[in-house]
Every structure is written in C-alpha cells, then in structure tokens.
Amino acid sequence: MSVASETQKPVPPRRRLAVKPHSVQDKAFFGIARSAAIGAVAIVGLILTYLLYMSWGTLAKQGPGFIFGSQWSAADPENLVFQIGPMLWGSLLIAVSGMILAVPMAIAAAYFIEFFASSRVAKIATLIVDLLAAIPSIVIGLWGVGVFTPVASHWAKLLNENLGFIPLFNNDSGSFVNSPFIAGWVVAVMIVPIITSVTREIFSQLDRDVINASIALGASRSSTFMRVILPTSSGGVVGGALLGLGRALGETVAIFFVLNLSFEINWVEVVESRGGSIASMIVSFFGAASPEEVKALIAAGLVLFVITLLINWLAAWIVAKAQPWRQ
Amino acid sequence: MENLQTTPALPALPRPSKSPWQIRNPKSTRSIILASVLPALASLALTFSLNIDGAIAMLTIFLPMQFAAASFVGFKIFGRKGVADAGLVIFTIFFSTLVGVLLMSVMFSVITEGFKALSPQFISQNNVYITSTTSLEYGGVGHAVLGTFVIVGLTTLVTVPLGIALAVYLTESRSKVRGTVRTLVQAMSGLPSVVAGLFVYAALITTGFTTYAGWLGSVALIPLMLPTVTRVAEEALRLVPVELRNGALALGAPAYRSFLSVTLPAAKSGIITAVLLGIARIIGETAPLLLTVNYANDTVLDPLQAMASLPTYIYQNLDSANDTSLQRAWGAALVILIFVAIIFTAARIATRSKTAKKSSKKVVKK
Predict the structure, then answer these.
(1) pLDDT at residue number A18
(2) Which of B75, B77, B95, B352 to mutate: most A Cβ within 10 Å?
(3) Where are the domains of chain B?
(4) Chain A to chain B, count of Cβ pairs less than 8 Å apart?
(5) Which residue is closest to A244 within chain B, CA to CA?
(6) Which comes out higher in pLDDT, residue B342 or B361?
(7) Most confident of A158-162, B157-161, B173-177, B296-300
C-alpha cells in the first residue's frame, strides 16, 4: 500500500489466471467438455419434458383427485379413473417407518464405529457397512422374502397382541405378512448402511480437539455426545438421512415382494396386510397396461420423481449449509 | 535473578499410589463386568422359567435390567453423570448390535443359501428347458452373467467418457454455468430407477419403435450411473493441486496437454474409483431392466434382443415362489454379491496405490 501511495498509482485489480483456448487442440478439448455438459443437461431436460408431456393429459383429466383419490380402474375405456392416493401415502408411510427404524440404528452404529470400537474392529465394520451400502436392493428383497418375513410377522403379531389397542398396531384381518411394517423393516435394512456410511464419514471429520476440550472441561461421554458431537455434525447426519429417505421412496423390487398392494387407503395400521408403493405399482401394472394407463403410470412416476428431487435438494442444501468448508 | 537461584529446592512429594485421573481401577472394572453379565443371565433365567417370547423378554426384561445395572455402576464410579453415560452406552450397543445382526443375517443367508446352489454348472449353463421344478443339477446363471456384462458394459462405454468429460467441464473450464450444470446432473441421482425404466419403456416400446432389447436397458441405466461417475470423478480431479496445473501452463503447455499429462495421471486412481463405483451402482438395478429388457432363458449376446441379466433372473425365480427356484435366486444373489465385492476390492486397491505414490513422492522431496 505504501508503495502505491508514494507513486500515486492506483493498485490494479488482481489479474485472474485463466486459460483461453487458442490452438485447435485446446478448442477441441474444451469443446468436448462443453458438449458433454450440453449432453448431460439435454438428458435431464429430455427426461423431464417427456415425463411432463406424457403425464400432462392424465394430470389435466384427473385433476387433484389423481393425488388424493383412491380408485384405479382401467377396465372401462369411456370412464378411466386413475388415482394414486393410497400408493403415494403408502410410499411415504413405508419410507418414514423405514427412517424411524434406520436413523437411530445408523447413528448408534456410526458412533460405535468412530468412538467405541477399537481401530481394528472399526476398520472391519467400516468395510462391511460400505460393502452393504452397495448391495443391490433385490438381494435385500430376497432376504426379506426368504428369511425376514417369518421373523417380522411374528414381531407384528406380538405387537398386535400386546399393544393392539393402539390404532397403529390394529389388525382385523389376522394376516401379518406383506404389511407396511415388514416393508418398512426391509427398507430400513436397505438404507441403514447408506446412512451409517455418511454419518460415520461426518463423525470422522469432526475436530478431535473440540471433543477432547469438552472432556477436559469435565463433560461426560453422554454430554459430549449430546452437546458437542451431535450439534456439530447434525447437518451432515440430516443430509445423510434424507439421502436414505430418497432411496427409500424410490425403492421398487424389494418392496414389491414383501407388500400386498391395495387401493384401499391404509392410514396408519402398519401391521395390516395391505399397503401401497408407487414404484411397486409401476412394476406390477406396466405389463398389462393400455397406452392411457401407461401415461397414468408415468404421471405417478413423475410425482415420485418430484418428491425425491425436493428431498435430495433439501439434503444437499442442509449439508452445504452445515459444512461450509466443503465448498 | 540471583534471589531465585538461592531459593532452596522443594522437597519431592511422595508419588501417589493411584493416578488421580485414572478413574478405572481393578475394582470398577470388576463391577462393570458384573453389571454386563448379571442382567443377561438373570433375564435368560427368567425368560426360560416363565416361558416368555424372546422378543418380548428382550425389550421388557433384559433392556430395563441392563439399564438399571449399568446406571447403578455408572453412578457408583462417576457420580450422577454416570447414569446418562450408561444410557448412551446401552443405546449404542443395543442399536449397533441390531444393525450388526440384521446386516450379518443378510450376508450370512446370501452366502450359506447361495453356496447350496453354486456349482460349476450353475455358473456356466443357461436357463433353457428349466422349469420351476427342475432339479438344481441342471441350469444356471451363465446366460444372466453374460447378459449383465453386455448391458452394464454398454452403459459403461457410454457413461464413462461422458461422465469424465462432464467432470472436466466442471473442474477445468471457467464457465459461469458450472453450478447449474452440477445441480442438474446431481438432480438425476434423485430419479427413481423404475421411472428411468418407465421413461424408456414409454418412449421406445409402447410407441412400437422396438421390442424389449438389451440396449434399451443400457439406455435406461445411463441416467442412473452418470451422477455417480461425475461426482466421484469431479472430486478426484479437484483433489489435484491447482499449482500443478498452473505449473504445466507456465511451462508453456496448452490446456489439453496439461490435463492429459499432469492432471489426469495425478487423478487416475480417483477416476478408476469413479468408474467402479458407477458400475457397482447399476449392476444390481432390477426395475429398469424389468421394464426394458425383460428376460430370456437362452444365452443371448445380441443387444438388439431381449436378454437375461442377474437381477431379472432373481426376480423371475422369486416370482415363481417355488423352493428350487428360490435356491436359484439365492445362487444368483451370491454371484452378484461376489461381483460387488470384487469391484470394491478393486476400488480399494486403486485408492491404496494412490496413497503409496504420494508417500514415495514425499520421500523423494526429503
């Protein structure tokens, strides 16, 4: 500054180092990159416009009843009624019950790996969790059908026998298989490794000095966890949980095999053997669907996509907000 | 200064028999062990003597007893804050055990049930002339493995160059719309896989353009794989220090040479990881393939026809709900699990060689 004031010259703004493509090869290099970007944006745009275009007719014809009604009849071509209320509610119910089960498990497992276990156990557990986060959902579905359904239906029966007075565990049919309860568990098993993996990552990035400081000030393990670890990492944990929620909402085949689809809306009776799921509905209906019905299914898929998008953006926003240093 | 030197040395204090900061001593360790074993034994005895269902006993007898015992010991050793600590410990261990049991149950059942079906002929044969009651000695997943290779391979061929070029655009260029492009690409990761399949089904199959075909499956998988490849490749490219690039540019290299001979080699392992994670993401996708490829029982390598693939093979066998076909499904699940494990090991080796290189560079610097 002193030099500039002596010579009375204004300080020029700092020059930014940037490469401008001059040669043909450079132009080609940046051209390829740009065309990839245009291509990717075109794919997104194409998918969105096509989904909107295909579903517009159904959405306009069915009106708000498409979301809130609960009737699906494609038999009479003069009077087509497509309403996805029970399926949408079922998707949300299963995803939320999956979250209720998965989030405490994931936080506990991440805390165990990062702060409890010896480094050797932690290493193996991390490996297994990361591997299971990549397991295809149909394998979880297979496990749900072959191994878990008998166990979970027994749990559901116990809940109904002992806590049946709560509407949540009411069951009039006497059948405990293929219920949203089991689907929720299967989804939870599917997303637990994903949430654990994210949460563990966040926990491992925490500043150890802050934790040590808290302990040095006389805080116990639990107050360090509640007052230091959770608040510092909450954004990342919530982001990871919402990521899992997005996965749970879009889950198709794992739910398809453990759920009895029904267009009679099932509000909260999770152990009843009927429920809904948009993704499973698409898979089970598309084969025999007429062109109009396919359009209605696309509209249902669009609704699901929009919900997942909102959740993903919310997750990205929360994570970015909570960890400004990652920018 | 002189005064200080003349002060007599303080007499040495006797060393305390127990370090004051050492809270755990043999006595407290003994009570911690007792508190962890006694409730388990007591609740086991109660459960068997009263003949209560295991799940109920776990929740209503064992957990409260364990919590009471742990709080008591915590209170004895740490005072009042020990009670909350006991709660945290019980919470962590209970839920971690639950996670461990569930995930281990998945792994264990896939491995044990899968090995019952696995045999050389299960890997090599296809599904022609196989009905749901045919014995396990005939038929297998050979056609499905090859089909998965073709479908996933085609997707990889398209997606990897696209994803890497996109990552280059996001890191190397100075374009102003990079943020928007990144958001849009990441929005694709929110696309439910079944909707991707339905999109291709509605656009190309119901319009009569073509029938079920392998390449349609590859198309449907592109939007699912692209966000993963782009995100990981972008992170890898961003990890390369900007000084390296600027150094190459300052030496007079054009941008494409600086990228090809400096940035890309430095980010090689990250890019390999991106490809592997992308493959792991789509190798088990079932719903899109169900809507676009359907199944085949014969070995089909022509992507213009309906093909078999491992996930749809599992679906097909699970759908027929028969003991033998369930066994076949488990076998195919084990094959997928092995593929995923191989991909993960490869990704791990790729990242490990990167750290090894880094450390060797440091040694050279010294």
Answers:
(1) 59
(2) B95
(3) 26-117, 142-355
(4) 269
(5) B190
(6) B342
(7) B157-161
User: Cβ of A279 and B194 within 8 Å?
Assistant: yes
Note the pTM of the prediction, 2 decimals. Answer: 0.87
- pLDDT exceeds cutoff 60 at B357: no
> In chain A, which residue's Cα lies nearest the Cα of B192?
A250
What SS3 class is residue A261? strand
Mean pLDDT of A81-102: 92
Cβ-count burial A179-194 (b if 16+ within 10 Å, e if not): bbbbbbbbbbbbbbbb
**Max Cα–Cα distance, chain A, nearest Å:** 92
Q: Which residues of A touch B233 (CB under 8 A)?
A: none
Positive or negative, the CA dihedral B146, B152, B156, B157 is positive
Q: Which two tokens stand for residue B177?
A: 């719309």
How far apart CA B277 and CA B155 sit, in angstroms, is 13
Superfamily for domain range A86-326: MetI-like (1.10.3720.10)
Instruction: Taking each helix axis as running N to C, give the angle between helix A180-205 and helix A85-111, from 0 to 180 degrees, rounded to the nearest 10.
Output: 40
Is there a contact between B75 and B82 (Cβ–Cβ < 8 Å)? yes
Separation of alpha carbons A285 and A305, rounded Å = 18
- For residue A327, what pLDDT is reported? 45
Per-residue model confidence (pLDDT) at position A255: 92
Mean pLDDT of B37-61: 82
Q: How far is A7 from chain B (nearest CA, A)?
A: 30
Query: How many CB atoms lie under 10 A from the CB of residue B348?
Result: 14
In whole numbers, what is the pLDDT of chain A averaged over residues? 86
Which fold does the domain B142-355 belong to in CATH?
MetI-like fold (1.10.3720)
pLDDT higher at B48 or B27: B48
Asked if the Cβ–Cβ distance from B246 to A17 is below 8 Å, we say yes
Helix (H) or strand (E) holding A82: strand A81-82
Q: Judge: A252–B84 Cβ closer than 8 Å, yes or no.
A: no
The predicted-structure confidence for B220-255, as pLDDT tens digits, reads as follows 999 999 999 999 999 999 989 989 988 988 898 888
Amino acid B24: pLDDT: 57
Q: Which of B195, B242, B315 to mutate to test the interface with A (most CBs of A within 10 A)?
A: B195
**How far does the CA of residue B195 sit from the closest CA of chain A (Å)?**
6
Please state, in angstroms and as integers, the Cα–Cα distance from residue B175 to each residue in A187, B130, B235, following that order: 41, 57, 18
In whole angstroms, what is the distance from residue B302 CA to residue A204 CA? 47
Q: pLDDT tens for residues A200-219?
A: 988 988 888 888 898 888 88
Terminal CA-CA length for chain A: 31
From CA B151, how far away is CA B172, in angstroms rounded? Answer: 31
pLDDT higher than 80, residue B351: no
Question: Cα–Cα distance between B181 and B173 in angstroms, integer?
Answer: 12
Q: At what angle do helices A291-322 and B178-188 cross, to 10 degrees?
A: 120
Residue in chain B nearest A143 by alpha carbon: B106
Q: Do A291 and B172 touch (CB under 8 A)?
A: no
Is this prediction's ipTM beyond 0.95?
Answer: no
Which tokens hold the place of A163?
């806590």
What single-letter DSSP state applies at residue B16? Answer: P
Q: Confidence band (pLDDT; 50, 70, 90) for B360?
A: very low
- Please give the DSSP secondary-structure letter assigned to residue B68: H
User: What are the extents of the domains in chain A?
Assistant: 24-62, 86-326
Residues of B in Cβ contact (< 8 Å) with A229: none
Copy the structure tokens of residue B16: 């305390």
- Binning chain B into helix, strand and coil, the percentages to the nearest 5 are 75, 0, 25
Instruction: Tell me how far CA of residue B16 lies from CA of B77, B202, B206, in angstroms.
Output: 20, 80, 85
